[in-house]
Design brief:
The structure is a homodimer. With about 220 residues, chain A is mainly alpha-helical. Chain A is about 75% helix and about 0% strand. In chain A, helix 1 packs across helix 2 and helix 9 packs antiparallel against helix 10. Chain A binds a DNA duplex (30 and 30 nucleotides) through helix 1 and helix 3.
Chain lengths: ~220, ~220
Amino acid sequence: MAGKSVRADQVSATRELILTAAERLFAERGVYAVSNRRISEAAGQGNNAAVGYHFGTKADLVRAIARKHGGRIEQVRVRVLDEAGDSNDMRDWVGCLVRPVTEHLAALGSPTWYARFCAQVMTDPALHDIMTEESLASPALRCIVRRLHGSMPDLPAEVRSERGAMARQLIVHTCAERERALAESTPTPRASWHDTATGLVDAIVGMWRAPVTRRG
Amino acid sequence: MAGKSVRADQVSATRELILTAAERLFAERGVYAVSNRRISEAAGQGNNAAVGYHFGTKADLVRAIARKHGGRIEQVRVRVLDEAGDSNDMRDWVGCLVRPVTEHLAALGSPTWYARFCAQVMTDPALHDIMTEESLASPALRCIVRRLHGSMPDLPAEVRSERGAMARQLIVHTCAERERALAESTPTPRASWHDTATGLVDAIVGMWRAPVTRRG
DNA sequence: ACCTAAGTCAAGCGACTGATTTAATTGCGG
DNA sequence: CCGCAATTAAATCAGTCGCTTGACTTAGGT
């Protein structure tokens, strides 16, 4: 599985170093508060232009970070998708939405930075589209959403998209807030990522099941 | 009601000009992508240091914007708080949480920038605390939260705080997403801010009422 | 063994940043 | 009516930014 040449290994190691350093600095200081120079030196590269050389612009770097994690999350998605089988219980499909994220964060060990990174990128006007593209590139996710919608066929389309957006916001920002609390050693409502997922699923299922007030 | 002197009016007008220009640029381009210089010239001030003169650092400017809107929102809060009276229906208190925000955005006319501004500030590690402080400074909000908690006395404390945080995230980012869609002329799930509030209240009430899965 | 191509490094470019300083403008109180 | 103090304007500062350049190092092919 190792690279076919010593040189290629060196390169991918450098890229990985830059990627993780950038992710950490972005999460802790803010994406736009960190320059490519700082990232390069934090990654141990004497070259202050290493980021530009390997990735190009900052938007490209953000995309590379998102894609790296996106790949790992996608693997978990296909697994939970398989586990869910052909269930008709909405709760199972909400779990398929939530657990890939929380399990990925749990697998990263402690501390993590990705959730805070995602939250920032999702709210930044210049980077928002990047994250959206990378997320929509997941076939498993689209399948899960389809099955989720199938489990409540009589919900109006506008409410479906409205609550779908809410569920997305909830997952991203709840994870980011927990990650922030962990980083600051502040008390968290839940003891583990697994429990956090349970709380999220409870809340999102309740949200989806909520009766719709007729306009008037 | 006007200022007591011509000069004082001039000054507060300049401050207001800077405030609105900054809010707009922050929402459209990102808080850290906009320099104080750009804000000054967008506000029609030949002085490229006008922002620094009137407000100080960028964090101070952010706080000033948050405080300006916070004051208006607080007025709506005390009104809806009065309207809710001594209701025991949780839905009324969730409405007290949601409507001040949506009604304020509706009152601002179109387009608005404050919701996107808030979403960014809330997710930025360096600015997050500022927004939190400004929000917690609202006595009406604290009262509403107390009444809301009182309407579901048998909910465990951890779940209470967990879902409280979720409701916060939901309100901020749902409004920001709608505002973004309006700015880009993208279809929105709801036709008005009033309907958006209805959808938010439906969802949040459903979330609060959701049964809590026992850990296991 | 030598050459090519790719990766790394150090230096420097112009542009821009926040902050400070100086000068001109202007309403206000005496 | 005039000096004062506050505000705006303009110029300037040192520092950092992204980006480009050219030299150096080294793996892989011939």
